[in-house]
Amino acid sequence: FCTLLKLKAQHNTMELALHGYQHDFLVQMQQQHYASQGDSSDLSAPLQAIIDKAFADPTVMSAIFDTFHCIHCGSVKPEAWINARKGKKDPYVFNLSQKAQSLLTSEILCEV
């Protein structure tokens, strides 16, 4: 999720711009694991779960943030579901823990 774009953060609410494929992934997680927990349009629980897993497991944190994966320059060959939905980002509002917001608003620099 290095490509998440922070737009603003206030209280526990944070607005992030997502590529279509990122949104699709969270929707799929929401439907499979969190649909019974309330508003099916709220994608906060799946994103929070990804971040919590990254904090709990250094291997996951490393896989997400220690390597640069550029889907735009052709250095990697993304799957069709990513290729078809990359490029345009749309804003979405998430209710995330302060710890998650701190991670997403921090400078995460990957070596290029």
Describe the structure.
- It is a single chain.
- With 112 residues, the protein is of the alpha+beta class.
- It contains five helices and three strands.
- It has a three-stranded antiparallel β-sheet.
- A hairpin with a 2-residue loop joins strand 1 and strand 2.
- Helix 2 packs across helix 3.
- The longest helix has 15 residues.
- It starts with a strand and ends in a 7-residue tail after the last helix.
- The N terminus is likely disordered.
List the keywords.
112 residues; alpha+beta; three-stranded antiparallel β-sheet; 43% helix; disordered N terminus
The major beta sheet can be summarized as: 3 strands, antiparallel
Question: Secondary-structure element sequence?
Answer: EEHHHHEH
The Rg value, from CA coordinates, equals 14 Å
Q: Runs with pLDDT <50, length 5+?
A: 1-9
Q: Which range does the strand content fall in?
A: 15-25%
Number of helices: 5
Protein structure class: alpha+beta
Spatial order of strands in the largest sheet: 1-2-3
Number of distinct beta strands: 3
Termini separation comes to 16 Å
Helix content: 40-55%
